């Protein structure tokens, strides 16, 4: 278990992650996650699971492991945002192929 004086390090890492999430989504996080939930519920589940593991890992996981888990969480959020930015492509490719194309 982490020492009490190390708890501040975990809080600092979490504050930086919150700032990074705001930067990644540019105010569109709720809209992005809602869209993602309709197109790929797996992504939303994965992001939710990693967030839960981060919350449970504060002060429990070794700090180096905690930071790597957070880096993975942020990388997946960056990918989710990139998918959302290209949502027109995903929406188009989710449509049935018109019969005249076959």
Strand and helix layout:
Blueprint: H1 7-25, H2 29-39, H3 41-57, H4 63-85, H5 87-93
Tell me about this structure.
The mean pLDDT is 89. 75% of the residues lie in helices and 0% in strands. It has one domain (4-93). It is mainly α and 102 residues long. The radius of gyration is 18 Å and the shape is elongated. The longest helix is centred in the last third of the chain and has 23 residues, at 63-85. It contains 5 helices and no strands.
Structural class assignment:
mainly alpha
Rg value? 18 Å
Distance between the termini: 60 Å
Name the overall outline. Answer: elongated
Order of helices and strands: HHHHH
β content, as a range? under 5%
> What is the makeup of the main sheet?
none
Mean pLDDT, all residues: 89
Query: How many domain modules?
Result: 1
Q: How large is the count of helical segments?
A: 5
Question: How many individual β-strands?
Answer: 0
Which residues form runs of ≥5 with pLDDT under 50? none
Helical percentage? over 70%
From the structure above, extract its key features.
102 residues, mainly alpha, 5 helices
Summarize this structure briefly.
By secondary structure, this protein is mostly helical. It is built from five helices and no strands.
